[in-house]
């Protein structure tokens, strides 16, 4: 549709455009910075940014010590917004993360003390250690971007980005997240061990924590909101939608998985693919974007059909090879 | 606004014009004007964007058209008038049609108008023209339908379909209709005569030889190249000089015009040759001419159905020939026609108007006094034509009261009818009974089709004289003047072209092409109620009632539809073949030739990466092409297809040998 612009509108548009251009450059710089801290994990860093840009939350599954926390910290640093870390334990209560109302005698009323959830970036360590009740409290907040305590609704800040980690091996005394709650996380991935070159560099260069300290914020929360908005403008063609639908349909075939991906997962897939295209500096989504996002979007939502020796990751890779691109 | 798009409107106008054209040719001038005016106005309105006409003008034009119709035909009943009414009204409908519904109405009626042509002309050209018109109408309907779909979903047309695929789609639709059309052709109950086969004397002019002959009447036929009939011989083909196709025979002469005699028309033939001894067996396929005569070689030994043979061997059909008619004949040339002649007939074969042509009479008297009689007189007259300065020509001056005198002594120029007429008059003056026979002479033999084509231009007139015991004997005075006329056909006798488009090569081309028409007649037009009954009786089914025929028809259509269903389901509408995809496949093909196999699950950029690793020398162009394709396919603002096409055209990967 052709639209006629007035001169003033054009100027406004131009300014926005310039601002976004600058934003985009700084976004890429931020991504590079995180890459510099977390060596050899470009793919995961990219996914983390995609997750941030598409207003989703991230779940990192891995053994301790591979840099989950470092990634979350580095992300929080470069995007320069306030950051909280919550270590989940089995005795953690919902109030510990949401906050409490304390009676103030001098004012003769209750005053709300917000908990750590009222931050913009939250690192939830070992999410599967807390009781289901506490997990739900967090996940409700993630889903609705607000928490309700004693009949008062408190909106959460924007942007709101949760990075949760869980340790898949340590199963004693944990409460695994049910599938419905895993759905709250847009993407999930594991970091894995670094490759030899990256590991050598890691061992020889200065400590990560000091590097983190030196890192200065590159983006403001305003910037992030603007970037998130820009991501939504990325063009999705009919052919691409065909591809996305073909993928979704394939996951619903019971020769692969017990249950397929929901339409909401499809929406998330598009959103994250748009973010990936945006990071690449394109204004349209290609099948490659979808293919990059798809495994990390699907792996925590799908469980292989019984009788398959393969893991979900292997199944997903095979599925991607089966669906042809229109 | 729910009007058709500009493009669709143009199609509507074009298909209506196509459907109207054959009718316009035959309509009276005032009606043609009344038809063309609204059409022109609408074309102008399309080009210049004129405003719609006020209602008063439109109603006025309609009233005017009805008046013109009434005064042209005297009524608005009858097939010609009714079809003219339809034509004019459709043209007038154009000036008030601005909605899809109206456009569809016009187009559907165009289809109907297109079929009305067959009420007047069943030649081969009409079906071909009809197919063109139908395809145009189908294209128009597709366009209108698409327009409507856009309005229903409030969207602009997403694709522009090329004219070629549009035509292809319509053609395929038409192909699908063929089995159904064929079923209707074979099984629909037929009347013995078609509904419009009732002769209407006021309508289309009759063609061919008429029931009288005056100087110039055959000359007019000479200009007419349309086929009169076709003959397929079973066995021996007669010599050109034997190919005298007998038609109307004339006895009465009033000094200017020859007419058929009372006896000749009403007495039946006394004896016919024996059919099993006759040497010539043939089948005649007579073109409709709205007349009663059937043509045969001398002397017919058999009698076609629904006809009688008169005493002068004219074959008259009970009903005029309004449809292609086929009849088989056997003829025997050596038969003696009337060895004895009754007094009444003899007198009518000698009758002449009194006090006419005194100079001729004087000449005959002189020859008579020289002692010439009978056969000798015949020879003398023929010698006269042959030796004196007589010309065989079309440019014969008009003759007055003593036509034979003027012809013999003054003008000495004429066509076969002048010679035949003069000869017969001279014979009668000499006391030899004689009469005039008209018909056709010669014909063009089509070697491929193995049939003889006789055209109206082969019309001819000759004489017959009667001698005791020898009976009626054919004498062709034209042969004495212009032997070529008989040996090589009417057209070789006149060296000058008859009209602007008259060349011998064109004539032979037309003769050759006539075979198409002949086949069409054989396979399609000839198929009548009789043939239908014969077809069923060959399956052992006799006398099917019309309702049984209709039942059969629907069973057959049902069967066809069932068989065709898979194909019908595949016809999805104008081909929207993806040109982008085609170009990309070409690229993949090129990669394949150098050993790079592309997985269908790889995106273009992904694919380019792996291809570039395998073919490092071409990596730049591979990436370039993949990027172009990716942008064309997935971005909101695709680059022109040309760019990608060019890039792929220049892409010639080399096998990586190193």
Account of the 3D structure:
The complex is a heterodimer of chains A (326) and B (658). With 326 residues, chain A is α/β, with parallel strands linked by helices. Chain A has two domains: 24-231, P-loop containing nucleotide triphosphate hydrolases (Rossmann fold, 3-Layer(aba) Sandwich), CATH 3.40.50.300; 233-326, Orthogonal Bundle (Helicase, Ruva Protein, domain 3), CATH 1.10.8.80. Chain A has 13 helices and nine strands. The radius of gyration of chain A is 21 Å and the shape is globular. Chain B is of the alpha+beta class and 658 residues long. Chain B folds into three domains: 6-159, no CATH class; 212-509, no CATH class; 579-649, no CATH class. Chain B starts with 5 loop residues before the first helix and ends in a 9-residue tail after the last helix. At the A-B interface, helix 12 and helix 13 of A face helix 22 and helix 23 of B.
């Amino acid at each position: 549709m052709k639209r006629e612009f007035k001169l003033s509108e054009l100027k406004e548009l131009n300014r926005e455009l310039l601002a976004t251009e600058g934003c985009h450059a700084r976004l890429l710089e931020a991504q590079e910075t995180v890459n510099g801290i977390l060596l050899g994990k470009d793919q995961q860093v990219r996914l983390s940014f995609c997750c941030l840009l598409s207003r989703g939350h991230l779940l990192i599954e891995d053994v301790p010590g591979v840099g989950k926390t470092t990634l979350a910290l580095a992300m929080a640093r470069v995007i320069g917004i306030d950051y909280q870390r919550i270590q989940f334990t089995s005795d953690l209560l919902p109030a510990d993360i949401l906050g409490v109302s304390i009676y103030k005698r001098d004012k003769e009323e209750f005053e709300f003390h917000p908990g750590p959830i009222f931050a913009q970036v939250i690192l939830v360590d070992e999410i599967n250690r807390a009781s289901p009740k506490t997990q739900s409290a967090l996940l409700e907040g993630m889903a609705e971007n607000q928490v309700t305590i004693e009949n008062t609704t408190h909106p959460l800040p924007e942007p709101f980005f949760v990075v949760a980690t869980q340790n898949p091996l340590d199963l004693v005394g944990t409460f695994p997240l049910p599938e419905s709650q895993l759905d709250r996380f847009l993407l999930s991935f594991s970091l894995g061990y670094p490759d030899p070159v990256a590991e050598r560099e890691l061992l020889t260069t200065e400590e990560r924590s000091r590097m983190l300290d030196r890192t200065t914020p590159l983006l403001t929360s305003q910037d992030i909101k603007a970037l998130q908005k820009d991501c939504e403008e990325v063009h999705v063609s009919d052919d691409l939608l065909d591809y996305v639908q073909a993928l979704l349909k394939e996951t619903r075939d019971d020769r692969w998985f017990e249950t397929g991906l929901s339409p909401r997962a499809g929406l998330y897939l598009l959103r994250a693919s748009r973010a990936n295209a945006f990071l690449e500096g394109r204004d349209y989504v290609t099948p490659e974007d979808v293919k990059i996002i798809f495994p990390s979007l699907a792996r925590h939502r799908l469980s292989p059909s019984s009788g398959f020796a393969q893991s979900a990751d292997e199944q997903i890779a095979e599925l991607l090879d089966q669906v042809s691109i229109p | 606004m729910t009007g058709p798009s500009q493009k669709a409107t143009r199609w509507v106008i074009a298909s209506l014009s196509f459907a109207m054209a054959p009718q316009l040719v035959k309509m009276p001038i005032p009606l043609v004007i009344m038809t063309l005016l609204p059409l022109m106005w609408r074309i102008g309105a399309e080009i210049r964007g004129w405003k719609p006409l006020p209602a008063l003008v439109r109603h006025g034009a309609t009233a005017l058209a009805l008046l013109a119709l009434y005064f042209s035909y005297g009524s608005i009943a009858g097939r010609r008038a009714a079809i003219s009414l339809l034509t004019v009204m459709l043209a007038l409908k154009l000036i008030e049609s601005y909605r899809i519904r109206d456009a569809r109405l016009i187009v559907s009626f165009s289809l109907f108008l297109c079929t009305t042509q067959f009420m007047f002309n069943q030649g081969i050209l009409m079906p071909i023209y009809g197919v063109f018109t139908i395809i145009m109408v189908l294209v128009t309907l597709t366009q209108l339908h698409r327009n409507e779909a856009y309005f229903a979903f409030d969207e602009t047309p997403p694709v522009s379909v090329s004219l070629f695929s549009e035509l292809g789609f319509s053609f395929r639709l038409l192909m699908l209709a063929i089995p159904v059309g064929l079923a209707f052709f074979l099984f629909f109950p037929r009347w013995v005569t078609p509904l419009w086969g009732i002769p209407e004397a006021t309508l289309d002019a009759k063609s061919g030889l008429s029931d009288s002959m005056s100087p110039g009447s055959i000359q007019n036929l000479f200009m007419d190249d349309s086929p009169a009939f076709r003959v397929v011989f079973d066995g021996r083909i007669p010599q050109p000089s034997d190919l005298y196709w007998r038609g109307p025979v004339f006895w009465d002469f009033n000094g200017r015009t020859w007419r058929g005699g009372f006896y000749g028309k009403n007495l039946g033939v006394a004896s016919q040759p024996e059919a099993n001894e006759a040497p010539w067996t043939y089948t005649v396929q007579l073109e409709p001419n709205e007349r009663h005569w059937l043509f045969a070689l001398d002397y017919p030994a058999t009698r076609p159905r629904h006809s009688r043979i008169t005493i002068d061997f004219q074959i008259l059909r009970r009903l005029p020939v309004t449809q292609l008619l086929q009849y088989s004949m056997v003829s025997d040339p050596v038969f003696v026609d009337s060895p004895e002649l009754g007094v009444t007939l003899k007198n009518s074969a000698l009758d002449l108007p009194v006090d006419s042509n005194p100079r001729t009479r004087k000449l005959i008297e002189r020859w008579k006094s020289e002692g010439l009689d009978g056969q000798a007189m015949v020879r003398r007259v023929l010698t006269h034509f042959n030796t004196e300065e007589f010309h065989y020509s079309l440019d014969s001056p008009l003759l007055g009261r003593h036509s034979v005198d003027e012809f013999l002594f003054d003008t000495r120029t004429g066509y076969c009818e002048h010679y035949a007429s003069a000869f017969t008059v001279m014979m009668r003056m000499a006391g030899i009974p004689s009469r005039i026979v008209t018909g056709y002479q010669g014909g063009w033999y089509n070697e491929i089709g193995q049939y003889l084509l006789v055209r109206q231009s082969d019309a001819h007139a000759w004489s017959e004289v009667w001698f005791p015991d020898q009976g009626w004997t054919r004498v062709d005075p034209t042969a004495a003047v212009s032997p070529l006329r008989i040996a090589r056909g009417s057209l070789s006798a006149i060296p000058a072209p008859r009209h602007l488009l008259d060349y011998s090569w064109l004539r032979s081309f037309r003769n050759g092409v006539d075979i198409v028409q002949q086949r069409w007649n054989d396979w399609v037009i000839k198929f009548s109620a009789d043939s239908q009954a014969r077809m069923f009786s060959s399956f052992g089914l006799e006398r099917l009632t019309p309702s049984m025929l209709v039942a059969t028809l629907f069973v057959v259509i049902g069967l066809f539809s069932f068989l065709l269903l898979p194909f019908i389901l595949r016809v999805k509408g104008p081909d929207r073949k993806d040109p982008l995809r085609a170009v990309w496949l070409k690229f993949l093909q090129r990669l394949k030739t150098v050993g790079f196999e592309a997985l269908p699950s790889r995106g273009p950029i992904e694919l380019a990466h792996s291809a570039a690793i395998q073919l490092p020398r071409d990596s730049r162009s591979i990436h370039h092409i993949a990027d172009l394709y990716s942008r064309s396919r997935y971005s909101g603002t695709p680059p022109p297809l040309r760019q990608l096409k060019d890039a792929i055209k220049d892409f010639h990967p080399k096998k990586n040998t190193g």
